[in-house]
Amino acid sequence: MSFSLHRGSVPLVVSMPHIATGIPDELRGGFVPRALAVEDADWHLDRLYNFLGGMNASVLQPVNARYVIDLNRPPDDAPMYPGASNTELCPTRFFNGDALYAEGAAPDAQARSRRRETWWQPYHDALAAELARVKAEHGFALLWDAHSIRSEIPWLFEGRLPDLNIGTADGASADASIAAAVVAACARAPGVSHVLNGRFKGGYITRRYGRPADNVHAVQLEMCQSLYMEEVVPYAYDEAKAARIQPVLQDMMQAALAAAGRLYGR
Which of 46, 93, 116, 247 has the fewest CB neighbours in a 10 Å radius? Predict the structure, then answer.
């Protein structure tokens, strides 16, 4: 199985498409040695979001790293952010622009298609099915697409990111009241900066599945890893930092869920 899915009992589905660090044995030889450490993973999100069990949310996670295939990119590999540096469906560069593969070893069109069929499609089939199940049971579904990233990556963006980057595809993927509730929760957190639809507006998952007219709302959170871990090798989890930001994350998600519920008289 290329993913794990825990089915919850509330109308909240959490996707963590970049959390994994696995690279199949048959692909490892093509990468440069540095790639095997998977430095651009969304490290430790399962540990950071360990309160999701108590919220009875559904949680979907892949097994393979984004270097194998990026589950948050469209199947046609169209750029998510035209005019900016973009990572691909089958990434060929680290976040600093260096090559991921040994010379001549990057996947060709046939290999990319095979990876899409083998790993990308099952994840999206599972996500679509879980959202449909949740919507059928509750009348609506809220998708939370969870990400984290180093706070400074010049190849991808200028300067330092705000701590919490909320994306709703410029309002297209979630009702405005849900976005407002998440922003208000961020504003309640002292010393934590935030932005709505800034550099990260939501990737393919947010844009594809967020359909407010069909009672499915999607929010992406891209958070700075400096909030809960060390951003350099060995990427150690920081218990003290994590303990400070976890209540903020939970408040954001509960606020979003409550706002969604109000839309449907729940």
Answer: 247
